[in-house]
Amino acid sequence: MNTSDNIVNINLKEYFWSLLEQWKCIIAAGLVFAVLVPVALSLKDSRARNNELATFQELASMSREEMLNTLNKDEREMVLSNVYRDQLLKNQSSYNDNSIFAGMDSDKFVVLHYSFVSDGDSDQICAAYAAALRDSKTIDIVRKNLGDTYKDAEEGYIRELIMVSGEGCVDLMVIIPEGTNEAALASGIEARIEEIHTQIEEALGKHTITYIVSEKQELAYDELAADLVTRTHELSLIKDKYDATYYSMNDAQRNVLWMLISSQEEIDAYVSQSPSMNIEFSKGRLAIGFVVGIFLYAFIYLVYIVFSSVVQNPELFVETFKTRSFGKISSYRYKGLSALVHGKVFYKMHRKGSMDDAAVKAVAESVKASCEHNDLHKAGLILTGNMKDYSAQCDKVLKAIKGSSKIEVVKIDGELNDDNISKLDCAIICVGSGKTKYGNVSEAYRICDYYKKNVIGGIYFD
Fold first, then answer.
1. Are residues 129 and 191 in contact, defined by beta-carbon separation less than 8 angstroms?
2. Distance between CA 132 and CA 238 in Å, rounded?
3. Closest residue by Cα to residue 330 from 239, 432, 407, 235
4. In terms of Cα–Cα distance, which of 189, 197, 168, 223 is closest to 112?
5. Which residues partner with 116 through β-bridges?
6. Which residue range is the domain that position 455 belongs to?
7. Which member of 46, 165, 287, 344 has the lowest number of beta carbons within 10 Å of its beta carbon?
8. Domain endpoint, select from 224, 250, 285
9. For position 210, which CATH number holds?
10. Rg (Cα) of the chain, in Å, rounded?
11. Quick one: 156 exposed, middle or buried, by C-beta within 10 A (0-12, 13-18, 19+)?
12. Under 8 Å CB-to-CB from 360, ≥6 apart: which residues?
């Protein structure tokens, strides 16, 4: 017989049924935490935000050197290296946003390709042509014939579309973005070459140019954008290094870094704010709070069961005291606040086999059979703990046993002593759910052992 008062076994089936009975309390806990969690998170966020704001307001009153001097040497070097990397990345971002060439997403580019040679001092003449074709007049011709999307582009981004070489021959390629008036662009470029031809003849003497190539072509991306590909790869490495350095920084370094890489407008807009306390009831936080409330209630109830000293279900009673169970008799008796903790619908669903007179009759028949088998004529129903709520049920069992056999049965409610236990042939332990402590049952077993009275089983009242 196990008479330990420390019970750690958990019947999960009974546990989950108990939670279902308490659904009203669980919903209430979920609703309470659906409010408390967003409030707690908002207060936490507001406090962190206000502390951060105070830090940046203090840094904003310092010079660049004073901010850097709040860090040690190694910390300063990390910050300054990331300031440099940030500038490189911003330059690349600006280039990607504004460059016509970088924004052309294509595997192949359409270009106007002109290649020609001249007689006479070929190297000098070719160099002169190349220099002239790079000037603003050529840029204006290209700009004039671009689509409306690119006409306001900076000169440097249009210059990217013009590639000129003057080594051995003059080689000119003009990339044609989508929307360009190709015919007008070709006419303009050819007219520009003739204009330069006239100017160079005046300066360097008569000469003839002979076209090797004069056509529209398609060129692969790698042929034109090798430098861009290389630069993009290098900047990707810089971004990785920036991120690695940033994540290894402490908060003080990150704060100084932000002050150094942000624009003055961004800094002024941020530090001009006043400390605030905002409560955010977003759908996500409400859902998190509701779920937290449900799980917290279930956890607290589990802890209560683990550390509870009262008998919670018949299975634990049988397992703990290694005794036979004659059955379970249930009766819904909860009113008022207790009814909130024990939902009637789930209570009856769980105990549908032990809620009627048939359960009382089955228990009585089981007791009768056990007594007759062991030739026992006088049995005592020993009520353990505070079982006044189950007194009526006990009387029903007592009446049913007496009515179905010649066995004499008495109910013992109170202290066990020589007067009420010595004349018994056997004892039946009666346990009340949530009312009987394991210590009460252990004490009843101890007294029965003392008087050498055999405990033939138990009845569980719920």
1. no
2. 37
3. 432
4. 189
5. 170, 211
6. 310-461
7. 344
8. 224
9. 3.30.70
10. 46
11. exposed
12. 329, 393, 396, 397, 400
| pTM more than 0.70 | no
For residue 182, the one-letter residue type is E
- Picking from 321, 347, 350, the residue whose alpha carbon sits closest to that of residue 436 is 321
d(CA 323, CA 455): 8
Report the C-alpha gap between 233 and 200 in whole angstroms. Answer: 42
Locate 186 and state its tokens: 């070709």
In contact, 357 and 397? CB cutoff 8 Å = no
Token pair for residue 370?
Answer: 């056990």
Residue recorded with tokens 């707690």: 40
Beta partners for residue 410, in sequence order: 380
pLDDT at site 80:
93
At 202, the amino acid letter reads E
Per-residue pLDDT tens for 158-207?
888 888 988 878 889 898 888 889 899 999 999 999 999 999 888 888 88
Decide if 385 contacts 412 (C-beta within 8 A). Answer: no
User: Which two three-digit tokens encode residue 248?
Assistant: 């290894």
Pairing of strands 162-165, 325-329: unpaired
For the chain, the residue count is: 462
Identify whether residues 219 and 231 lie together within a single domain: no
